[in-house]
Amino acid sequence: MNRGASFAIRFFCGCLLVVLFSGCGVRPHVTYYNLTSISTEQPRLVSKGGRLPLALGLGPVAFPEALSRAQIAARLDPQRLQYSDVHRWSGSLVEGFSEVLLEDLAAHLPEGSTIALFPWEGYFRPTHRLVLQVTRFDGALAGEVVLTVRWTITSQADKETLLSRQSMIQVPVGGEGGYYDLVSAQSRAVADLAQEIAGALDGLGG
C-alpha cells in the first residue's frame, strides 16, 4: 500500500470516529414553560357598595436571587432546591409572574378600573400602588407549591400605607406530579394571591 492510500484510509477513519462520537453527545430535548392566567376559572368577587373604579399601579415585584435563572426549581427539602436543565422557563420568571398577576387582578377589580405594570407610561395616573416582595415560589414534584410574598398597598396621592400583609399560598401539585403539573400549580397560586389582594382592595373602600 502506497503512502497516499494509507493517509486517505487514516483520514477516513478519523472522520468516521468524529461522527460517531458527536452522535453520542446528542443534546437532550429541552421543554419550556410559562405561567398562565386562570382568572376565567375563578369566581369574580362582588364589590361592596358599588366601589369606584381604581387605577392600580402594580410593582415593582422583587424575587429572590435563587429564582433568577432559566432552570425551573423543584423543592427537595426545606434546605435544598434542584434546578432542571431540560425544564426551563420560556422567559424571565419575575416578568411572567408580574404579567399573570396583572391579568388575574384585572378580572377581580371593580368595573372601569385600570391596572398597569411598573414602570408605567407617563399618562397613567394610579390611585393606588401595589408593591410585592416574593420570598418563595417553588414546589415539590408530586407535592405542593408554596408562594410566600409580602405585599403593600399605598395611596398614590399621599404615599400613605393603607395595608401591608404577608401571604402564604399553598397549592397541591396534581396530575402525575411532573414539571407541567408543577407549573400549573404555580399558576393557580398566582391566581389565589390575586384573589386575596383583590379582596383586600375591596375592603379598603372607595
What does this protein structure show overall?
It contains 3 helices and 8 strands, in the order αββββαββββα. By secondary structure, it is an alpha/beta fold. It has a single domain, classed as ABC-type transport auxiliary lipoprotein component (Rossmann fold), CATH 3.40.50.10610. A 5-stranded mixed β-sheet has the order 5-2-6-7-8, covered by helices on one side. It has a 3-stranded mixed β-sheet with strand order 1-4-3, covered by helices on one side. Strand 6 (128-139) and strand 7 (144-155) form a beta hairpin.
CATH topology heading: Rossmann fold
Name the structural class.
Answer: alpha/beta
On the 0 to 100 scale, the average pLDDT is 85
Low-confidence stretches: 11-23, 45-49
Secondary structure topology:
Elements (H helix, E strand, L loop, with lengths): L2 H22 L6 E3 L21 E8 L8 E7 L2 E10 L3 H14 L7 E4 L10 E12 L4 E12 L5 E12 L6 H25 L3
Parallel strand pairs: 1-4, 2-5, 2-6
Antiparallel strand pairs: 3-4, 6-7, 7-8
Helix pairs in contact: 2-3
Could you provide a short overview of the structure?
The chain has 206 residues and is α/β, with parallel strands linked by helices. 30% of the residues lie in helices and 33% in strands.
Q: Can you give keywords for this protein?
A:
single chain; 206 residues; alpha/beta; Rossmann fold; 3-stranded mixed sheet; elongated
